[in-house]
Amino acid sequence: QHLEFDGVVCQNDQIARGCLTILRQAGLEIPRDVAVIGHDDWQVLTLDSVPPLTSIVNPTEEIGHVAARKLLDAINGHPHHGIEYMPCRVVQRESTLPLR
C-alpha cells in the first residue's frame, strides 16, 4: 500500500525472520530504515539472522504455573476474575536501534 513505516513488531521470531528477508529484498536496511523485533527469543532464529534479531521474552514457565494454579482454584470453587499481567523483557540485538 506504499505506507511509510519505520518499525515492525512480529508475533514470533519465525515471522520476524521472514520480515527481515522481505525488507532486505525491497532494498531496505535494517535497522536504519526499518527496525524489526520478534517474540519468543528462539535463539536458533534470533542469533543466526542477518542482522541478529531483537526479541521479546515472556516468562513462559511462570505463566504456566499461574495458569495451573488459577485452574485448580476454579475447579475447587474459587475462580479468579480479571487480568493478571506478567513482566516480559526485551533482548536487544542488531535488528533495532539501541534502547535509550
Report on this structure.
- The structure is a single chain.
- The chain is built from 3 helices and 4 strands; from the N terminus they run βαβαβαβ.
- The chain has 100 residues and is α/β, with parallel strands linked by helices.
- Helices cover 33% and strands 15% of the residues.
- The protein starts with 6 loop residues before the first strand and ends in a 9-residue tail after the last strand.
- α2 (43-46) links the parallel β2 (35-39) and β3.
Which helices and strands, and how do they pair?
Elements: E1 7-9, H1 13-25, E2 35-39, H2 43-46, E3 54-57, H3 60-75, E4 89-91
Parallel strand pairs: 1-2, 2-3
Antiparallel strand pairs: 3-4
